[in-house]
Amino acid sequence: MTSSLLTTDSRTKRRNAAEARFRAYGLAAIGIAALAIVILLTSVLTSGLSGFRQTYITLEIALPEAKLDKSGARDPAVMAKVTTIGYTPLLRDALLAKMADLGISTTASDKDIAGMISKEAAATLRDLVLANPDLIGGTVTLEVLAEGRIDGYFKSRVTMESAALDSNTSPEALQVAQALADAGVISTHFNWAFLTAPDASDQRPEAAGLGVAILGSLYMMAVVLVLSLPIGVATAIYLEEFAPKNRLSDLIEVNIANLAAVPSIVFGILGLAIFINFAGLNQSSPLVGGLVLTLMTLPTIIIATRAALKAVPPSIRDAALGVGASKMQSVFHHVLPLAAPGILTGTIIGLAQALGETAPLLLIGMVAFVREYPAAYTEGAGLFGEAATALPVQIFNWTQRADPGFVERASAAVITLLLFLAVMNTVAVLLRRRFERRW
Amino acid sequence: MWIFDVLFSLPVLVIGLALAGLFGATARAKLACAGDVRRLAALPRAHGSNAFFSVMVPALAVFLLLSLVRLIGDRQGAATISASTVYWGVLVVALLGCAGAVLRSSLGFRARLASEAWIRALLIAASSIAIATTAGIVLSMVFEATQFFGQYAWQDFFFSTEWSPNFRGNSSLGILPLLWGTLYVSAIALAFAVPVGLFAAIYLAEYASPRMRSIAKPMIEVLAGIPTIVYGLFALITVGPLMRDYFAQPMGLGDSASSIMTAGLVMGIMLIPFVSSLSDDTINAVPQAMRDGSLGLGATKSETIRQVIIPAALPGIVGAILLAASRAIGETMIVVLGAGTAARLSLNPFEAMTTITVKIVSQLTGDTDFASPETLVAFALGLTLFTFTLCLNVLALVIVRKYREQYE
Predict the structure, then answer these.
(1) Cβ B360–A407 below 8 Å, yes or no?
(2) Which of A77, A200, A311, A321 has the fewest Cβ atoms nearer than 10 Å?
(3) Is the dihedral of CA A137, A143, A148, A152 positive or negative?
(4) B120, A242: Cβ pair inside 8 Å?
């Protein structure tokens, strides 16, 4: 075979094919990563977006004095003796009356009809009546939560076929719900309560909200910010500007590098053993959570601050020292302000990491079921000492519940968490773009 | 009166003393120089800040020290120091600091040097928190793990293949099934993440246009910013059922939604940026002259990458893989939600198995009794996990440092 520059021989062809293949592998790898993000986000969005909308039933509820306040004295203490069980029939009667008004007839039993209203509704009504005793004897128009299955029907999670197999609802009840929706009694709209209400029990996913979790996460972020920023910056300044080259400095450096790679659950064990068992701080309190997350965030902030300090050119230090500033003055008056944007960016990224951290919080008891909004300070529990949950832990909590309504809640909570993180990271990127200086 | 409670509480008093010292020392310095600041060895405000730190730093140190002693005493069951001793101890130190600093401010006193010494002490104290944290981690786990091994034979813990905790006692707590699950899931995760991450890094560093790079690199890094609970939920509601319906059941390998495969794949996605970022950096650090030399000899681009760039960047790449492995071993939420809770030694990747981290969570949540081996085993598991990841991290560091090519 004669070789010519104009004809590619088989060996060259093979090599060129290998080249094209190699390049395709690289492109495929990036494609796989992109595909993973797309699938992950679509999966979360499709199952979670509906969690921000909720189905409500508008009812005109008669509040007979004979049932709610026999004495007629309107004494709250006496009225409080009527539990939510006393209010449930009122809601059922109101719904049945509404159906009669609209001429909806059904073969569904009264129990199934009553089951269309969330168990939370009776508590809502009771709280309303106890707060306004004057309502008794009249009729009140109230928008109450529909039961999770009915809600699921309007979000296409529950179908006639699945309802037939479900002991908690029936196809007839769903037909009634459809008729009520056509008449405008049942409507589905945006649900602020999801972001403000506390968690609800296993039986009522429709009432569960993120209020306590968001508050708990907020408290923890406050603790993390207040502790990790000064300590992290101080450590970074010492290591970058002052530390002599000795054993101690080496030890600190190795420790920080190692802490950055320690599994997060180990920090949970530390929190449990030291902060709760040894120091006796309250279990599941935002204070302990904040302390644990502070220790986890410190390496991030230290590393970011060191990078920011390193980026300030030595001429700035030399100039300050040259006009008679002390080493301390040159750092605090000149280097630190110039490094501030980088430090801020690192801090925000560290906080974002801390916000999404779950595993260590499980160990310090933040999985507890908390319905009370935690106070920032109380006499008994101290600063941030009341039990709370956190956003990621609430998500985990909901994944452990049996009712399928909680899957939607968990996904919606994930969307909320990702939104928080997206905002924080965007702010960090914008800050970096706006203030980044190149010398 | 609550107002007195607030007024006489320790933080208010100490800060009050510090401020008093600040103003007192400043005023005394001004008085001493009779209006001519040039006669002072340090500016009046340096006198002030020295007095402030002279109160705050020793008071804080004494408070922490006394509280620690008190806590240790409490835990040992002996009342060593009462709360009022701490209160008065701190107060006396603060008062001494305040008085001393104010009395010292005179014409010749080099207050700036003194206050800078305090700041330096604070900086050193902040730096030692990193050491204290590591010490805290090791001590807390070693202490509780020793208690565990006092109640449970270490041979049984490390070499038994059965894990069946029983809170009424008489449990089998062998780590092997958990270790198997941990290593299996990490192996699957790495088998997915290493090729994808490496090829992504190679493409980004060698082939991609600047425009493509500016889009694809942040996109991959988004994966690193997603919290693990989100990956866990993804494994639970999407990947798990998918694996079961389209792989496990048709192949007759089981019908469990949570499986090692599910957790491994999702963890693999999470690890892509860990592999790709570090690899990308080391590939970029290989000097252009080496590429040019290889291309000049007639090698294609891919041959250059395979035979010149990868060998040159290998230490960094191996370091990245080891760090990713350490992440995989310590990862918790994905396996809690994706891998299941049954401790099992099986080769079938579609079967539910469990890992060390899952069992740490399950032994330490809910009702725990810190005297029983069933709870204490979590600390022994934690110590094992910590040792494993520490070795991997140190190995990664050593490889990167020792075998890094020096291009000068």
Answers:
(1) no
(2) A77
(3) positive
(4) yes
Nearest-Cα distance to chain B for A178, in Å, is 28
Whole-number Å distance between alpha carbons of B136 and B1: 40
Mean pLDDT of A397-414: 91
CA-CA-CA-CA torsion sign (B19, B25, B28, B33): negative
- Tally of CB atoms within 10 A around B108: 9
Angle at B348 between CA B346 and CA B351, to 5 degrees: 85
Compute how many other C-beta atoms are within 10 angstroms of the C-beta atom of residue A114: 17
According to the model, what pLDDT value does residue B124 have?
Answer: 92
Domain annotation for chain B: domains and CATH numbers? 2-140 (no CATH), 163-403 (1.10.3720.10)
- Is residue A352 pLDDT above 70, yes or no? yes
The half-sphere exposure of B212 on its side-chain side, counting CA atoms within 13 A, is: 14
Tokens of B344: 């099992």
pTM given for the model:
0.91
User: What are the structural domains of chain A?
Assistant: 53-191 (no CATH), 211-435 (1.10.3720.10)
Is 90 exceeded by the pLDDT of residue B276? yes
A272 near B339, Cβ under 8 Å? no
Residue B95: both structure tokens together: 């008062």
Distances (CA, A) of A414 to A39, A208, B229: 15, 14, 8
Q: Which of B223, B229, B327 sits opposite A392 (nearest CB)?
A: B229
Taking residue B245's Cβ as centre, other Cβ atoms within 10 Å add up to 12
Burial class (CB in 10 A: 0-12, 13-18, 19+), A15: middle
